[in-house]
Design a protein that fits this description.
Layout: H1 3-6, E1 9-10, H2 31-55, E2 59-66, H3 72-79, E3 88-92, H4 98-101, H5 107-111, E4 119-123, H6 132-135, H7 156-175, E5 178-186, H8 189-201, H9 211-217, H10 220-234, E6 241-245, H11 249-265, H12 276-290
Parallel strand pairs: 2-4, 2-5, 3-4, 5-6
Antiparallel strand pairs: 1-6
Helix pairs in contact: 2-11, 3-11
């Protein structure tokens, strides 16, 4: 991985604070230089995806978390546009359905995991259960968990157990061949304000804005605290968090792409080599075609 992106990784070996991270960091890139580098990175990821699909030994799970207007959708659009749709699947998680509430909080996310050889992208993820639910603990009541019929019952031990469940879940996945890449798009409160105003002023972007966004914005400090705790509790060596400066979308997209590319390269993916019997069948098939 290029040096300018190594500092974006949190591996849980020290306490992390969002206050110490610049949201407008660009690693010395200009907008045009970043766009050019992104094109090259996307081409490389496309080649790596082909090997991933052919070898079918690993799967790649990419998680995006962020505050509203941080650029998750556009990052997915720009970074993943070079992928073969046959080997990629995207899930955007909204409020759980009544059926999903009848299961544990990881159930719907487990169902959406990519099979070997494929890349899965989760726009929001199982982390919503320790983020938005941490800020709004009343949402937990809809899960009908025994012993938690009152918000007052949801204390430190509850969240400690939930973080443990997430760590166990991700440890199980990585032990069975799933590569997990977790991205937090770290946008500043000031930049979010500008993007909200743009959505309000531009008729073509009105649909992106909800009055509920303002209500959640008022809870900014609570969300930052929830993110910090979640990152510190669940960033591990095998499934680290990547904190992406998101004030400049063009840099965020490049950083995400470079990290994905580097991780996929580290898998040393190769096209399958056929055995002698299959090689012989290829020769026979070739002779048959040439003899037509």
């Amino acid at each position: 991985m290029k040096n300018e992106f190594k500092s974006l990784i949190v591996q849980g070996d020290k306490k992390f604070s969002l206050k110490n991270v610049k949201t407008d960091y660009t690693g010395g890139y200009t907008k045009q230089k970043a766009k050019d580098a992104l094109i090259n990175s996307k081409i490389e990821i496309n080649h790596l995806q082909e090997k991933l699909y052919a070898s079918a030994t690993h799967s790649v799970l990419i998680l995006f978390q962020a505050m509203d207007a941080a650029g998750k959708d556009s990052a997915i659009e720009h970074v993943m546009s070079g992928l073969n749709p046959q080997g990629c699947q995207v899930f955007s998680f909204k409020v759980p359905t009544s059926e999903e509430y009848q299961h544990d909080f990881l159930w719907r996310h487990y169902k959406a995991l990519p099979e070997r050889g494929r890349i899965g992208i989760h726009n929001r993820s199982h982390y919503e259960n320790v983020l938005v639910c941490k800020v709004h603990p009343e949402y937990i009541l809809s899960e009908n968990i025994p012993g938690f019929a009152d918000v007052k019952k949801i204390g430190k031990d509850f969240w400690k157990q939930r973080y443990q469940s997430i760590r166990n879940f991700e440890e199980h996945l990585t032990a069975n061949g799933t590569v997990i890449l977790k991205f937090f798009l770290n946008v500043s409160r000031e930049e979010q304000k500008e993007r909200f105003l743009e959505r309000i002023d531009d008729p073509t972007k009105n649909w992106k804005f909800s009055s509920g966004d303002i209500k959640e914005r008022a809870l900014w400090d609570d969300y930052m605290k929830a993110y910090e705790e979640a990152i510190n509790e669940t960033s591990t060596e095998n499934a680290p968090w990547h904190i992406i400066p998101a004030d400049k979308k063009w840099f965020a997209r490049l950083a995400i792409s470079e990290i994905i590319e580097e991780k996929m390269k580290s898998l040393n993916l190769k096209f399958p080599i056929l055995g002698e019997e299959e090689q012989g069948k290829l020769s026979e098939s070739k002779m048959a075609l040439l003899g037509e």
